[in-house]
Amino acid sequence: MMARSLSHRRVIIVGAGHSGLATAAALRSSGLEPQKDFVIIDSAPPGQRSWATRWQSMKLRSAARHSVVRGFPFPGDEDRHPSADEMSDYLSSVEKAIGVKTVWSTRALGVNRLGDGSTLHLSTSAGEVQTRNVVCATGAAAVPRIPGWRQELAVPGVVLHSSQYLDPAQIPPGRVLIVGGGYSGVEIAEELTSSHDVTLATRAEPPRASERPIWSRLRRKGPMSEARPRAASTDVTHAAAVTGVNGDAVMFADGASMKPQSLILATGYEPADGWLPDSEPPGQPLHVSARIPGLFTVGMPRYSRADADTLAGASREAATVARLIVGRP
């Protein structure tokens, strides 16, 4: 029944995050009607975009003015850095303003072309769907990346990916090893120093102490910087990259080792594109499928530009994809 209600739309957008909503906004601006001409599906439980599960003290790297879906300003002070909860609420308000009603708990499983015509066959967890266009907006950083050695490590406390971290109360007392020197690793390390003995293992040179707040030290190249953050707190112990484990001990590239009570893996994410055709090569121009006309991506750098997963980059891609869809026969 659900699949039947989705079929025969002109466009199905897969993913209700900022890329999916940017696509929906661009399609509406191009004259297509939400729910009638296009719908959004998402594998998450109702309303549970990834922002809703980020740690409580998290702030966006970009200011509110640069953290928007095109055409929908962020309420309040445009120079502040919104929290994850604010971003989740903002995207929900954009969804409502566009007039699209996301079909939650519906996962895309595969897509292919039916014969030589313009009809696409989208396999979903709710059944088989036919449509003319499919937009993959499932996110470039959607699936937690877990290092292979994790299964071999035994610790007395907890092991969490950064996507599961909410606040220091989750972490039992004792030594905490955080693996990963990106933004989430550094911010979580600094937050935990007031309550835990924290070691931060990174592949880069040991970061130097510097002034707060952490984002004020970034080398500005526009709305968001690509500079590596540095842990400001001198209470954070820095370690070399993890090379492996031995029972309850973690081994580092410089020969050192430690036995953490708990482990937080700030090891990044993989794109949620496993449902796309295996033969679809990355790097196609204009985010257009080489093999399946009508299949597009938005917000996926491996299929287009390096900045595609930023809010501004996704909006630019969405506008291009909307024009291509409207121009298709």
Spell out the blueprint of helices and strands.
Layout: H1 2-6, E1 9-14, H2 18-29, E2 38-41, H3 84-98, E3 108-113, E4 120-124, E5 127-136, E6 143-144, E7 159-161, E8 175-179, H4 183-192, E9 197-201, E10 237-239, E11 242-246, E12 249-252, E13 257-258, E14 262-265, E15 269-270, E16 295-297, H5 311-327
Parallel strand pairs: 1-2, 1-5, 5-16, 7-14, 8-9, 8-14, 9-10
Antiparallel strand pairs: 3-4, 4-5, 6-15, 11-12, 12-13
Helix pairs in contact: 2-3, 2-5
Summarize, please.
The protein contains five helices and 16 strands.
Protein described:
- A hairpin with a 6-residue loop joins strand 3 (108-113) and strand 4.
- This protein has helices at 2-6, 18-29, 84-98, 183-192, 311-327; strands at residues 9-14, 38-41, 108-113, 120-124, 127-136, 143-144, 159-161, 175-179, 197-201, 237-239, 242-246, 249-252, 257-258, 262-265, 269-270, 295-297.
- Strands 1, 2, 3, 4, 5 and 16 form a six-stranded mixed sheet that branches. It has a five-stranded parallel sheet with strand order 7-14-8-9-10, with helices on one face. Strands 11-12-13 form a three-stranded antiparallel sheet, with no helix packed on it.
- It has 329 residues and is of the alpha/beta class.
- The longest helix has 17 residues, at 311-327.
- The chain contains five helices and 16 strands.
